[in-house]
Design brief:
555 residues, alpha+beta, Neutral Protease, domain 2, Immunoglobulin-like, 8-stranded mixed β-sheet, 5-stranded mixed β-sheet, 14 helices, globular
Length: 555
C-alpha cells in the first residue's frame, strides 16, 4: 500500500501519520452521504444474488486514456427479486445491459446503477448479465492511496499503465458488485492492448490472441475466489522470467514481469521471494493460491497486494524504499514490499473482511507479518524489537475499526497498532508453538472466505482458551493504550490498570528482580508481597504504558 514518488522517500511513519491518519480522521468526521450508503451497505438489490463468475473484457487505448469493454456477471438467485445493483463510478458509463440477448432498462443513482430484470429470477437459478461500458476513468493522483488508473511512461517513453483501487473501489474502472462481502468463485480477465505491450493481470495466462487491428488480447484465468479491489491490469513493455518454489503443498510457479532495464537485477533480487515464502508459510500455512501461481510485477508506485499479481515498485532496495520503518536496523534486512504485500495473499485475499470498516484484518496481520519474517530469519528477539520499533508510527487519534455499512475504513493505526496488538496477544498465549498453530488454524478455518471482526475475535478466543472480548474492545475500538500503574513501597508491590475500558483485566508479564512473574491487574489496586527494595520492569513486548503509581496517587 503505498505512495507517489514525492512521498516515496519519506518513512512509513510519515506516510501513516500525515496521509493515512489525517485522511482517515477527516474521512471519519465527514458526514455520511446517500452514496456512502449505496456503496457500503448490503442492500436489497445486492443481497438476493450470489456472485459466481466474472468475465471482464477491457480494451485499453493509451492514445486517449480510455477504456471500453464488457463484463459478464454470472450469479445464483438466493431469493427472487427483479432489481439488481451494479456499481460503476463516474466518469465511466454503462452503455447497455443485456440478459438472454434482451436489452434491459436501468437507472443511475450516482455511482450505483439499478437494473430492471425482465426474466423471472427463480430461486437457486444461475443466470448471467452482460454489462457494456466505456469512458475515461479517473486518474490516480497518488497511487494506490487514491484510486484510479495511472498513465505513465517507462524510460523509453513507452506506455506504462496500471490500476489501483483499494478503498475507492474496483467500480472506479469496471462495472461490478462493488462490496467486499461477495466474491466470484472464479474469473476470466481479457485485456486488449497495443501489440507492442503486455498486460499482466491475476491468475494464470491462458493465452494471447493476436488481433487484426494491431492489438493483442491477454486472457488471464483466476480459479479461486477474488475480491474486487485485487483485480488489476498492469500494461507495459514487460520482460518475463520465472522460477519455482517448493512449498508446503507442492510447487509454486513464480512469474516475474519487469521493465526490461530491470531484468538482470530482478533475476537476482527476486530470490527474496524464497525467503518470504519460507517465513510466511511457516507461520500462516500453505500459500492460498497455488492454482493461480504467484507473480511480482513492476509498477510506478511502491506496491499493492493484487491477488496472485503482487505489484512491486520498491526500487530493488531493502526496507521501505531503503528506509527502516522500525528504526531498529532490522527493517533493512528484507524488502518491505515483497513481505508486506505478499502477506496479504493470506490476510486480505484469502481471508477478506466483509466490510472495509474491518480492514484491520488485512493490515494488522500484514504489518505483523514483517515482524514474523524477521523472527523466522533472525530470531524471536529481533522480531520483537522490530514490532516494538514500529510503535513510533502510531497516532492513536481514532479507533482501528471504522463505521459499518458506509464504505469507510478505520484509522491507519490498523497497521502498526494492529501489529502490536497481535504481538501482545502472542505474549498472553505464552507458547510460540501454540501461537503459530493458532495463526495457521485461522488461515485454514477462513480459507477463501469473507469474514467479520466478530468471527475472527471468536476464533481467537476459542483457540487461545481466553475470553478476548475486552482485549479487542480496548485495542480495536478505543484510542487509549492501557497504562500499567505500579509502585514498590517496602515489601509491597501495588498495581492497577488505568485508561482502560471498564472490566479490562489483561494479564501482564513483569520482572521482579530479574525473575519473570505474571500479574493480573484490574482497575482497582492490587497488592503483592515482594522483597524489600525490589525492582520491577514490564515486559516491553506488551503494548502498554508503564507508569509510576505513587505519582498518580499524589494527584
Amino acid at each position: 500500500m503505498n505512495l507517489s514518488v514525492s512521498i516515496f522517500k519519506t518513512s512509513l511513519l510519515t506516510m501513516l501519520l500525515i496521509i493515512g491518519l489525517t485522511i482517515n480522521a477527516s474521512a471519519q468526521n465527514r458526514p455520511f452521504t446517500h452514496q456512502d450508503t449505496l456503496r457500503g451497505s448490503i442492500s436489497k438489490e445486492r443481497i438476493w444474488w450470489d456472485l459466481k463468475y466474472y468475465h471482464l473484457e477491457v480494451a485499453v487505448n493509451p492514445a486517449d486514456s480510455t477504456l471500453k469493454g464488457q463484463n459478464t456477471i454470472r450469479y445464483k438467485v438466493n431469493n427472487p427479486y427483479q432489481v439488481m445493483q451494479i456499481d460503476l463510478q463516474e466518469p465511466m458509463k454503462i452503455s447497455k445491459i443485456l440478459q438472454d440477448n434482451k436489452e434491459l432498462k436501468f437507472t443511475r443513482d450516482g455511482n450505483a446503477w439499478f437494473v430492471e430484470l425482465k426474466k423471472p429470477q427463480k430461486q437457486d437459478a444461475v443466470n448471467e448479465l452482460l454489462v457494456q461500458f466505456d469512458g475515461r476513468p479517473r486518474i490516480s493522483r497518488n497511487p494506490p492511496w487514491s484510486g484510479g488508473l495511472s498513465w505513465r511512461k517507462d524510460k523509453n517513453g513507452g506506455p506504462w499503465i496500471v490500476t489501483t483501487c483499494q478503498g475507492d473501489g474496483a467500480s472506479i474502472w469496471w462495472p461490478c458488485k462493488d462490496h467486499q462481502y461477495d466474491e466470484p468463485d472464479s474469473m476470466l480477465i481479457s485485456i486488449t492492448v497495443p501489440e507492442a505491450l503486455t498486460d499482466v493481470s491475476n491468475g494464470r495466462l491462458r493465452g494471447v490472441i493476436q488481433n487484426a487491428n494491431h492489438t493483442r488480447t491477454f486472457n488471464w484465468f483466476v480459479s479461486n475466489p477474488i475480491n474486487n479491489y485485487g483485480v488489476n491490469m498492469n500494461i507495459a513493455d514487460y520482460a518475463h522470467f520465472s522460477d519455482k518454489y517448493q512449498g508446503e503443498k507442492g510447487v509454486i510457479d513464480c512469474e516475474y514481469y519487469v521493465l526490461k532495464e530491470n531484468l538482470e537485477k530482478a533475476k537476482t533480487y527476486f530470490q527474496e521471494v524464497t525467503r518470504m515464502f519460507k517465513a510466511l508459510e511457516y507461520w500462516y500455512g500453505p500459500y492460498p493460491f497455488y492454482e493461480d501461481s504467484y507473480k511480482l510485477v513492476d509498477v510506478p508506485y511502491p506496491g499493492m497486494e493484487h491477488q496472485s499479481s503482487v505489484t512491486y515498485g520498491n526500487g530493488y532496495k531493502f526496507g521501505y524504499g531503503g528506509r527502516d520503518e522500525s528504526h531498529t536496523g532490522w527493517g533493512l534486512k528484507f524488502d518491505f514490499i515483497i513481505v508486506h504485500e505478499s502477506s496479504h495473499e493470506w490476510y486480505g485475499n484469502s481471508i477478506t473482511s466483509k466490510d472495509i470498516a474491518d480492514m484491520w484484518i488485512h493490515e494488522s496481520f500484514g504489518a505483523y507479518s514483517e515482524s514474523l519474517f524477521v523472527d523466522y530469519h533472525y530470531g524471536k528477539q529481533a522480531g520483537s524489537e522490530y514490532c516494538i520499533g514500529t510503535r513510533k508510527n502510531i497516532g492513536n487519534r481514532s479507533p482501528i475499526i471504522g463505521p459499518y455499512n458506509v464504505n469507510r475504513e478505520g484509522s491507519g493505526d490498523m497497521y502498526s497498532k494492529g501489529a502490536n496488538m497481535l504481538h501482545t496477544l502472542r505474549q498472553i498465549v505464552d507458547n510460540d508453538d501454540k501461537f503459530r498453530n493458532i495463526l495457521r488454524g485461522l488461515s485454514a478455518k477462513f480459507y477463501h472466505q469473507t469474514v467479520t471482526t466478530e468471527q475472527v475475535e471468536n476464533y481467537l478466543s476459542e483457540a487461545t482458551g481466553l475470553n478476548l472480548k475486552l482485549f479487542f474492545d480496548q485495542y480495536l475500538r478505543n484510542t487509549k493504550i492501557p497504562v500499567f500503574e505500579y509502585s514498590v513501597v517496602g515489601k509491597v508491590l501495588a498495581y492497577r490498570w488505568k485508561d482502560c475500558i471498564v472490566g479490562f483485566d489483561m494479564p501482564l508479564k513483569i520482572k521482579i528482580n530479574n525473575t519473570d512473574k505474571w500479574v493480573y491487574p484490574i482497575g482497582e489496586l492490587t497488592q503483592l508481597s515482594v522483597d524489600e527494595n525490589s525492582t520491577v520492569t514490564v515486559d516491553p513486548a506488551f503494548y502498554v504504558i508503564p507508569s509510576d503509581l505513587s505519582k498518580s496517587l499524589e494527584k
